[in-house]
Amino acid sequence: MSSADEPNHALPPSYARTDGRTDSCLRKITFKNHIAPYATGSTLIEWGLTRVICAATIEERVPRWMREQSSPGGWITAEYSMLPYSTLHRKQRDSTRGRIDGRSQEIQRLIGRSMRAAVDLEKLGPRTIWIDCDVLQADGGTRTASITGSFVALSLALERLLEEQVLTELPLVKSIAAVSVGMVEKTPLLDLCYEEDASAEVDLNVVMTSEEEFVELQGTGEQTTFIGSELTQMLDLARKGMRELRELQQSALEKA
Hints:
Blueprint: E1 29-33, E2 41-47, E3 50-59, H1 64-68, E4 75-82, H2 94-97, H3 102-116, H4 121-124, E5 128-137, H5 142-163, E6 176-184, E7 187-190, H6 194-199, E8 202-209, E9 214-221, H7 228-255
Parallel strand pairs: 4-5
Antiparallel strand pairs: 1-2, 2-3, 3-5, 6-7, 6-8, 8-9
């Protein structure tokens, strides 16, 4: 992409990001595939200091509600969890509290919706793919890292099913990735780390397809409202980040 195509969001002279990045720069992102050998597909995504294991496991049946409604095809669902030592102060396990906290439930539903947008469920056949995302270390953007890593794990799992002739054709229809953007000190920033996220006036999570279609937008004025021009600036940054994420996902899959 030429410099003319880059969003023009110069940082104010008095502002500097906590890790020295420019406003339109992603943190360093890497994938370590096949991290969970018993899963059908898995990867460890390292996104700055955020680390998430994403694994896809196949169950040769569909949920009960699909059987009762005679719904064709398969299903994709997700579970998300932050391990107790993933944050500075120990986080209690959901199992010991006896319930999933509201944030985890929201995120796992988002992951499931995002992965279903990538797949032709009828071509998947009468089976369920479970996506498990376990956060090893959190420094902002765990939901976007989980979605981006889950697509890699899902792709690896579907390729394996194709190789084993469980599937006759690959049911993937598009790639999916997610990134955060926000306004910090009135400056639009791409990919907020924890410190930036905690002080952001506006926080926006964007899930998009490879065709730059929106799967979901989650935007909140944390400390103030925001206007249309600011939303446009943030979405420009998100699109730039999404193109880079797709390249990183593709490279990780080619290496696999």
